[in-house]
Structures
1.
Amino acid sequence: MSKFNLRISFVIILTFCFSALRVNLMHASTTKSAINQLYLDEMDLTKGTCGWKTMRSKLSVGGNPIKIATVTYARGVGTHAPGEITIKTNGASRFTSKIGIDDETNGNGTVEFIVYGNQTIIYQSGIMRGNAAAKSIDLDISAYAYLRLIVTIADGSNNNDHADWADALLEYETVKPVCIKAAELPWTEFRNKTVHYALPNKNLQFRLNVYGVQPITVNVTNLPVGIEFDSKRNILYGKISQEGVYNIPVSATNIYGTIEKTFKIEISNKLKMPTPPMGWMTWNIYRGEISETKIKQTADVMVSSGMRDAGYNYIIIDDLWQGTRDASGKISPNATKFPSGIKALADYVHAIGLKLGIYSDAADNTCGGAVGSLNKEVIDAQTYASWGIDYLKYDYCNAPADQATAINRYKAMADALNNSGRDMVFAACEWGDRNPWEWAAEKSNAQLWRTTWDIRDTWEFNDGDKNHYGIMNSLDRHIGLEYYAGPNRWNDPDMMVVGLYGTGIPSNAFGANGCTDREYQANMSLWAMIAAPLITSFELKTINDATKDILLNKEVIAINQDTLGDAATRIFKDGDIEVWARDLYDGGKAVAFLNRNNTVTKNISVNWSNLFIEGSYDIRDLWKHQLVGTSNTSFNTNVLAHEVVLLKLSKVDNANAVQLLKKTDNWNCFVQDKHLKINYSQPENGIVEIMLADSYGKQVLLKSITNFLSDKITADFDVSNLPSGVYFCRLKYANRISTKKVIL
Ligand code: GLA
């Protein structure tokens, strides 16, 4: 087994078993030794988070000597809300600091300082304003394995929130405290969506991401009929035939205790976006230089180039289409850019089989300075509906920074759209600043949300500015976010840059000057893997063959549009080499090998059994369009610099392969005289489980039978105590399962 194979097994165990650092809270020692001191400014601050620029040691976040209410401090850390420094105390006993807003804001800014010992707040400053005298903190921290030093936004905006932990000092006896990433905290928690959407009767897969110290025992109850729990991967899977909302209580237990949470599976025929949207958007190529002529021409090329038929069906007008509002508040488009009006344009694109999207912002003004929709949500939604709009991208410039306001403002527009009488997709665009994956679907009715600031036409920014995104920076942002994606709820890392070659107006900012075709191919492969919207923005009139080969690759599009809606997990990383994998509807898998090295080709070998596959799979290269092996042998390929090799693993029909969810149709069940009867010819000895559930999926009977085989008997259960109605009877034998409807 190669080094890679060994490592891949290790990483998979990490990913699927959710192990984490084991931490011992019991650190108290009986023999006292000398007290040592460690200034916060001597610790590794790169592990912390800072709401603007980066934290500074012995300086304010703006780079000046630390100064609070005219007092200067030689030691300390300058940061910016919202931010956190997370410390593993290693038994430290005391934390002291002077806190306040730095004088460099000239009296502006409002923040609150909060200190957690483990999961308990042990200090809270209350709201502190610029110019206020520093407050003193002196805390006994000997009972806590972890300390979290937090500065929060106190007034809805983080403007001028320059916060200082002046003279901050830790006292310890033997082992130095260390900074860790907040993500490394050991408590058990679920880091995944709370609602999974799915269509009736379609395979679904809901991945629970249980985080914390191993071992963790996950317990799932009240499973609806048709749904199983795979405890090896913490996945709920199966299918549900009836529309409705199914509640699933889940608990997770480790040495810190038990947490409980109820998740939902919502089955509906009316999902607006069961697979990620595909299309073309104006912004990255044209910025505000848009017009109805350009958009019609683009729409025509979407048809003639084959883009429409490949699935790219949305054409989205981004910012700077707006004119002014009339006396009633109704908005009109800019008459020079759109002399025939938006309705005429919508009619045009609809007539050729495309859909039309538009843009606005949850504030008075958009990012480009045009008229926004704040407090005009209802009239704007009605106007868009009357024009025949199908999709709204809703931006968040000029709006308050806090999450609560964002939730409300997005919900206000979603409600207005939903009451407008026309089906419109709702795409939230607050750039991932307020963790929209945790609320945009659940609370604000969005079908997708941006996860990053605007993408630029380059492979990667290495300038340390966390607001500069190339293809790789966007990809990195998605680690851990796969657990929040799924049908009708997609992470959006912004448009693909494929086809731009440095020609876009905003997409060439910060020195971005285009990518190679190989990099564009990687962009397409990775966006397909992470189930991102496949939305392009380039001069479609000049589309060349290389771009067509990339964008029209039906096999790659099929990965992106796979109806299971699973988003890829990075299952392996070793330096420049990464492996990403996602599950597919038909039981197959898509696997991407990425080489991030700038010059060197890497050879990657993989032992497929490490990918949790069972049975035999064909391996197909989706860019070469050919079979390249089977899972029965190990696989080896060269991956060029900045290349992605994209493979699809398809299950070979094999009698020995494990067939979960296979219908065992040689059984039946029926009700006679208030008795449930089951006939089954069991192929060999083994336990058969019979479960009966009501129409809401609630289990009302569970029995195990061992003698179908020997006696060929009919199992018979008295169900006279159950009310009449529709029930579902499920038979489970070995790895096969089947459900039938019965009427009582
Ligand atoms: C923000 C968005 C972009 C684009 C512009 C328009 O920057 O993130 O995608 O919509 O606004 O002004």
Note: Residues 283, 318-319, 366-368, 395, 429, 431, 454 surround alpha-D-galactopyranose (CB under 6 Å).
2.
Amino acid sequence: MYINGSWREGDAHFAVHNPATGELLAQVAESTPEDVKAAIAAADAAFNHWSETTVYERSALLYKAYELMLAEKQELAHLMTTEQGKPLRAALNEVQYAADFLLWFAEEAKRVGGRNIPSVRAEQRFMVLQQPVGVVAAITPWNYPISMLTRKLAPALAAGCTVVLKPAESTPLCAIAVFKLLEKAGFPAGVINLVTTSTPAFVGELFCTDKRIKKLTFTGSTWVGKHLNSLAAQHMKRVSMELGGHAPAIVCADADPHHAAKGLGLVKFLNAGQACISPNRIFVHRSIYVSFLETMVDRTKKLIAGNGLQTEISIGPLINEAAVIKLERQVEDAVAKGARLLCGGKRLTGPTFDAGHFFAPTVLADVTEQMDIYYEETFGPIAAVLAFDTEEEVTQRANDTDYGLAAYIYTQQFSLAHRLMEKLNFGIIGINDINPTSAAAPFGGMNASGLGREGAEEGIQEYLETKLCGYLI
Ligand code: NAD
């Protein structure tokens, strides 16, 4: 734990394991309610001074953190692969993405200005101030264990807020590494605080009920997000919620099926499918369905699973055994209801895999609405593919989900792409683009995928309060 500028060991500990090898990596402090309250008290005590620093001082510290993160990129990526499992190349990309938020918000800090509004009365003026909301509580997931931290910490700190952060129980070591780096950058005591635990519910409850916390920012499952949102509502706290997704991908009749299959294969199997923007239902126009599936299956069979520290590995383990069991259930259910299993479909076994949690990269064709996978977030390496005939049909089916995070479209027709973009109820849309994300662009979902946006100028607004001042001269 990192509380009020010092590291604490704690009396009790929980184990962190490598999901590829099962190896015990470390024992991490099990925070008590008293520790969490101490972290909140430290953030509260530090708030006045921190919020009064100039934006240029805050920017300089974030910029320093950015430089340190780039300097430590290799070590951070190595740690991430060991603790979370993604291949080293993907971990390096994530550290770069995480650093991008530090840089973006180091700059964005200087652009929070407020505004003046003219009045109908000659002697009246209106001024709008934007001020930090106060102490922020942050809860982050394991799938992107460094970038999901900086996506919250950087805008909160830039805005002048102090923070207490609780990382996921599977990946506290990445969080500890980020906090060591922020400490090195020179953030004052109390401004950033870290509490770790393997039993997160009591922390969520303290975050939502403590009067000193003014804002909760959460990334994780929709189920936990709804629970925390309802608790926070009882105390009228501001919230940002980055939740689950069930992205549709639409491959139109004019698209190159091989190009689309390559792109969607890459984004589907990224992080072993454990991404909130992973395509979960791939709709392919019937006229190119067979060619699309051929390329998708061919490329999927070539993926090499294993320990992400080895250079030839293109797909790592799942985070835990429960994830493997969920995928086995989704495949079994789909096949029983008529889906064609074209490759994969089972856990990987053998000396390379037995100590970890590996699932074979899988392609399921002819998926239908009757199957669990059609509505349930997969969060694993299963490409669920189905054919469509008309624009109207595919729009309706793509929108047939409670989620609304990301969607993908492959077409060369501008007007078709534009029509689909307008009609799809998703916060992020990639058109011939499998990576429509950047620190400079607003990331977030609609409906059950959440509230608010991260990154971009919207990202810092989540941590600012608006104050209107009307006055007579
Ligand atoms: P999760 O909801 O189980 O856990 C997320 C975080 O919440 C962890 O830190 C966990 O410890 C904590 N948590 C769990 N129960 C809690 C409780 N009762 N009170 C307080 N905190 C609690 O989700 P997960 O399995 O770790 O992450 C995967 C989910 O996150 C997926 O649904 C994925 O789509 C989503 N996700 C969304 C985004 C996004 O930006 N929209 C990004 C990454 C992941």
Note: Residues 139-144, 148, 166-169, 200-201, 203-204, 219-221, 224, 227-228, 242-245, 276, 377, 379, 405, 445, 450 surround nicotinamide-adenine-dinucleotide (CB under 6 Å).
